[in-house]
C-alpha cells in the first residue's frame, strides 16, 4: 500500500471521511481506477451518509475484480445496513464459496440474513455448512440457537447456546438466547443473573435494549410494575440511539406523517373502484391486537393459507401515494391484477383454497384496498387500546419505520390513535365487507367467535382450529408473538393495563376517543 493510500486509510479510521475522500481523489486523478483508492472512496462516502453512491462504486469494483473479498464484504455490509437483505446475503454466499479464512464467518452472516428474510431452509443450510467446517464455531452455534428458539424448540436452542458459551463464555447472542429460554421455562433467577452479566458487555444500542427489555419483562412477571415500565423506557431510549433508527426519514409507507397524509385523502369523495370482482381476504387491525393469534387459528384450518406480513400490497401503495390518491379506474384495475399475481407467487401451498393476507398496518390503506377490491373480505382485529399500546411499547421489535414509533410512550399512543382512527373512518365511510374480531371476546369464548369468523369466510367448522397451538412447535412465526402462539387460548393478556394506570393516565387524552369508538370502558 502506498504512503498516500495509507494516509487515506488512517484518515478514515480517525473519522475524517471528508479528508479521506480528498486523498482518494488525488490518487485516482493520477491512477484512474486504482482499486484500493476506489474502495476507500466508497467507504468514505458511506461514512458521510452517501450509501447509494458507495454501493454503486463497490458493485462496479467487485464486478471488475470478483476476487476482491474485502470489497465484496464491505458491499454486503452496506447492503445489509440499507435493508437490501437478499442482495447482501448473495454476496456473503459468494465470499463463503471461496474456501479460505472468513468462510465460516460469511456463512454465519448469510444465515443471519436468511433468518431476517424468514427463510429457515436457507439459514439452516448455511449453518450446517459453517458447522461442517468448524463444529464448535461459537457464532454459528449461537445463530443456530437463535433459530431454534424462534421456532420454540427450546431444548435444541439451549443445547446450541451452551455449546457456543463453552467455546466462548462471553458470547452475547448465545448468552441472550439462553437467558430467553430460561425465562420462557420459568427459571427467572437464572435468567436475571445471566442478563446482569450480559449487561456489562452490551455495548451496542441494540444489545443494550435487548437486555434491558428482557429484564423489564421479568420485572413485569414478578409484579414489579413501576420498575418494569422504567426498564422498558430505558430499553427503548437505548434502541432509539441505534444508527439504523437515527437514519430513518419518517416518510415510509407506514410512518406517522404518511398516516396523516392518507387520512386527509380519505376526506375526498370515494374514488371509482376497479372492475375486479376478486374477493381476497385481509387480516388487519394494529400490531399486538391479536392478529397473530387469529392467523394461527386460521392456518390450522386445512382450507386456509396465511401470508404473514409480506409486502404484497406495496406496489399499489407506492402508486397510490405517488398520485396523492388520484387513481383512475383503469389504474386501479391494473394494480388489482398485479396484487393478485403477487399473491399467487407468494403462496407456499397447493392445498389451501383461501388465502389470508395478514399485515396489520395495511389498516392505513383500507380505503385503497376497497378501491382495488370492492368485494374483498376484511377481518378487522380490535383489542383494548390500553393493552395494545402497552404491548407495543414493551416489545423490542425489529426496527423499521413503523415500529420506530414504539420507542416513545406518547408517540406509541399517538401512532395507535392515528392508525385506528383512519381504519375506523374507512370502515364507516366506505362500503367494506368487514368482520370485527374483538380479542377479549375471542379468548373468552373461542369456539363461538371462531365459528362466526369461519361463517364470514364461508368455511366449514373444523375442530382442529381450537388446537392450533399443537401445530406451532417447530414452526417459526415471524412476529414477536411466536412464543405465545404455542400455548392454548387464554385470558392472561387481557386487562394488563390496570397494572400501569399511571402511564395510561399520561396518554389518556390520546386514547380516550378510540376507547369510546371501540366501546371499551
How helix-rich are the residues, as a percent range? 55-70%
Q: What overall geometry do the principal axes of the alpha carbons give?
A: globular
Are there runs of 5+ residues with pLDDT below 50, and where? none
Q: Give a count of the beta strands, DSSP E runs of length 2 or more.
A: 5
Main beta sheet strand tally, sense and closure = 5 strands, parallel
How many helices? The count is: 26
The spatial strand order of the largest sheet comes to 2-3-1-4-5
Distance between the termini: 71 Å
Report the sheet-strand fraction: under 5%
Mean pLDDT: 91
Q: Helix- and strand-based class?
A: mainly alpha
Radius of gyration: 25 Å
Structure overview:
By secondary structure, this protein is mainly alpha-helical. It has 26 helices and five strands. The protein has helices spanning 3-13, 17-30, 35-47, 51-64, 69-81, 85-97, 103-116, 120-133, 138-150, 154-167, 172-184, 188-201, 205-221, 225-240, 243-246, 256-266, 291-299, 314-322, 329-346, 366-372, 385-393, 409-429, 439-444, 446-456, 501-506, 508-517; strands spanning 281-284, 304-308, 354-358, 377-382, 433-438. It has a five-stranded parallel beta sheet with strand order 2-3-1-4-5. α3 packs antiparallel against α4. The N and C termini lie far apart (71 Å).
